[in-house]
Queue: 2 jobs
Job 1
Amino acid sequence: MSFNCQIEAVAFCRTPYKQKFGIPRQPGLVGAARGFVELQAPYNHIDAVRGLEQYSHLWLLFSFHENLSQGWKTTVRPPRLGGNEKLGVFATRSTFRPNGIGQSVVKLHKIHQKKGSVILEISGMDLLDGTPIIDIKPYIPFSDSQPDASGGIAHEAPHLIDVAFTQEAREQLEAYSKLEQYPRLEELITGVLAQDPRPAYKKSKADPKLYQVALFDLDILWHVIDDRILIHEIKSGVS
Ligand code: SAM
């Protein structure tokens, strides 16, 4: 049943994640990912975030805006189950859900205020660059943290895979790391790839494919060999 509710973006999120492929599947998995929540008028007033600096973490409620046109599905195949088993949409964190709303806890580093703009500096997000934020709330440990909770199919953090660089990629990494616009680049690349972003069905057999992940405006080219990820090339590419 519909009800009268108009939702608009209060902010937009700027992140190093320029495409969905490679984004961690939950927040907090790649702490080296720094981003910014840019408040939009009429919410871009410092009074709207007065007191927020006392909190170390935030809840971001957001729209899975890139998937909205594809609607929702009653059941989904979570990657954790190898893509073989179906669960109900409300038993998962699927992005294909009624209303397309996501929520993530992120670390708050600083609140910047300059020339009519209010920007929250955050890290650890699992959001695509440009994601519309529909609400921001402080994370309250005494009630939001439930140490005794059972985590269903997602009881533990995902298994990590080793990540290595070819000599050429290592030299490219060192050159890009000197530039201010790529903060904590090595940690970001290894943190993202250690999650092994490939679809589940690719992980069970030999996989010669060359993959690409976009971070900032860089293309990272890699493939899997002997159960580890080898990065071949890091090059400027994404606009
Ligand atoms: N933590 C959130 C939640 O539980 O609601 C998001 C979980 S969802 C499984 C995380 C994935 O959403 C990311 O890996 C990325 O592929 C996708 N994603 C992130 N931002 C998106 C956006 N704006 N539109 C569509 N998909 C997005």
Job 2
Amino acid sequence: MPPPLTPPSEPVRVRVPAKINLALMVGRVGEDGYHPLATLFQAVSLHDDVVAAPAPAGEFSVTMSGEAEGVGDGPDNLAVRAARLLAEDHGVADQVGAALSVRKSIPVAGGMAGGSADAAGALLACSVLWDLDVEPDGLGALGARLGADVPFALLGGTALGTGRGDVLAPVLTSGCFHWVLALSDEGLSTPAVFRRFDELGLGREPEELDVADELMNALRTGDAPALARAVHNDLAPAALDLRPDLEATLRRGEELGALTGIVSGSGPTVAFLCVDESAAIDLSTQLARLPRVRAVRRARGPAQGARLIS
Ligand code: C5P
């Protein structure tokens, strides 16, 4: 029986980054329904904020705000599931509660791990609110049960992900990369993109699940043009098959001066790498005029993983 917890006092605020996959190499689907991956994640400055406030024992709720269209606020909400899972894992589900609020800027169903970010934020915020003793990798291991990208949302920076994308190794980078994100007027379902990937027969052999040395070198030296030549996304053909209009967005962004454009994860967000901040500002103004682009955001990478803010 764990000792009774001290009642929490103040709300705890956490900021969690979105991610871009600089490389996404995907194998054939496994028996668990997941695809083995080798991916290079970069956290970017676009973020969600998660606040955990005290609530009566056994009560776990969430209020969504910001760009949260289509995200429910019931027990299936990933932040609520994360809070409950953390409480259960520590054997305190009948002693603690949390009133969560999530302010979303990461696009929903956008291929930038917005749902995983909210789960990661709730895990960190509740662990502090409830003053739990958490092992260094404990939150990540728990988070992986909620979504493959949760461990990276906690870690942040730039990291190589293997397994389902949940086994992480930090990667050395220098400098700062400037991204322009074209958000779509409609989301794409990640499972649907993986299904189309299977239908197209695109899965790699296990020995082909590898990230190119050129990519690692470009990150280490902070060389944006070299990075642009090395980025790669195996899911892009599947995402483009489901959303052919993204092809025009990619092409236009490159014509307008981006070093390169990539589909972010399973899409439909398109991420453009720019040579510097002023190129990013120019590009973002122009991209906003394209059809089917709901909004344009500038972001820098790498960004910190989930962290407490005042
Ligand atoms: O883990 P998460 O809930 O983010 O994954 C959403 C869906 O994406 C999974 O249910 C699965 O269909 C697909 N997926 C996959 N292989 C991965 C990660 C996700 O097939 N490595």
